[in-house]
Amino acid sequence: MNTGGRDLSLADLRGRVAIIDFWTFCCINCLHVLDELRPLEEKYGDALVIIGVHSPKFEHERDPQALAAAVERYGVEHPVLDDPNLTTWDAFAARAWPTLVVIDPAGYVVSTMAGEGHLEALDAIVGELVAEHTADGTLDTAGSLYVAAPPAETALRFPGKAIELPGGDVLVTDSARHRLVRLAPDLETVVSVIGTGERGRADGTEAQFNEPQGLALLPAEVAAEAGYDLVVADTVNHLLRGVRLADGHVTTVAGTGKQWRMDNGTADALEVDLSSPWDLAWFEGELIIAMAGIHQLWSFDPLARTAGVYAGTTVESLKDGPLDQVWMAQPSGLAATADRLWLVDSETSALRYVERGAMHTAVGQGLFDFGHVDGPAADALMQHPLGLAVLPDGRVAVADTYNGALRAYDPSTETVATLAADLAEPSDVIVLGGKVVVVESAAHRLTAPDLGEAAVSGQHHRVTRKRTKVAPGALRLEVLFEPAAGQKLDYTFGSPIQVTISADPPQLLAEGAGKGEELGRDLVLADGIEKGVLQVVAQAATCDAEAEHPACHLTRQDWGVPIEIAEDGVSTLRLVLRA
Q1: Could you tell me if 350 and 370 are in contact, meaning their C-beta atoms sit under 8 angstroms apart?
Q2: What does the pLDDT look like over 386-428, one tens digit per residue?
Q3: What is the largest CA-CA distance in the chain?
């Protein structure tokens, strides 16, 4: 895709530096990498070619039309290879989303790295290769391989979330056009627009957004004191923006614009880093944020002007319990009642809720189990849901995005039913004048579907990842790290190393779970558990070694390592943290 119909081979990349980006469009880390690559594309021009290889996780992502929509939705401006059967993924031995492979102009692989946050390393590698091959005369910059698709003519383009405004109008985030659009109650007439429509960051009445998503109205008394009426989750800018409806004036109210890498120890809302805020809901006197980028919920107090963690540990998985111990996976939709905060956890295809200081799962089985199955909630399955609303009768309507369906969970019977199907990637649900309205994102519209109730017994899909065989009992885990050239470990604020280890199921680890300040750790695997996933989060702080005013750097990566216990398994597991 994005080549004007031309097929590309590795030979076509000779003479240029190439970055192969293995991604899947459900994955928030992959979306972060798309934005990290933009400045490299701009800096190096035709000396660098980026090829996205889309290797899907969810069944819906195998649909080439869905991929084409995602390429447009996220503004991907480089060629993309559709790899539905993971053929190219396997050929390059990719094991994680995202994975980046750097190929030099002679066709040799010179670096491979997994995860996000590699902009500095990539810039250094690409810069060195461009300089080297320019000097050798082996760099070829003969035109771009990217061919843009013609612009589409629709009133909205990939709308994300919507809310009803006082008076009956509807405000929707027009995400791919980086603006907010106010619609009349007929859901078609455009009343007004907030934002210039250009990707960027600017306050005032000529505001700029970057793929905005969630919206939330503040209570009237809070809005009067705060000076703005609603809050927008400005997702790719990693900000919250306040909007005054009377004149469309926009103010940044939370976030620095930098993506969160670690706790910076402040509660001042304008000094904390956020990470892809995706949705918002007012609950128990504060605004709750679905912080999709780090698998947490955060809270924001618009009067105290503070923000911080509300629930979650940053571990990406599914675990219930007290809010400071739960695991989530890309929470993307919120809806609140007086006593419950409902959320959809998109990567675990789960519907969950917060009640009395704890999180519970109503529907969902884990990171790699999904499908379209109705009936008892314990057996029901969804596929990457992004939005939800509480209906007047107490049921929870879920925008089951990758199933193209509107689902309903009934808390009184703990059952799930399908209310509507054949929707184009529904991303949110609102109740408007007594009727249910769906944001049909890939159809670029809001629609009120005809509702029925049917039981669907579809397929149960399970993504299987290759497991590493490990010997029973003692297991040595080592994180290998070397500071980048010209840097050294930074002991200014104590140990520069932090490694956190947990497991799914938690009982997998008899010893060794928790946080430590060493790169190596001795673990003990419990008896009686045959397989599971080791969750490892490692970070290292470094600083420039020789500079007069040294800059600080943080390298952070997390892994979910599937393992199985076998007598012929390894007794040492090594992970590479790349500076």
Answers
A1: no
A2: 999 999 999 999 999 999 999 999 999 999 999 999 999 999 9
A3: 72
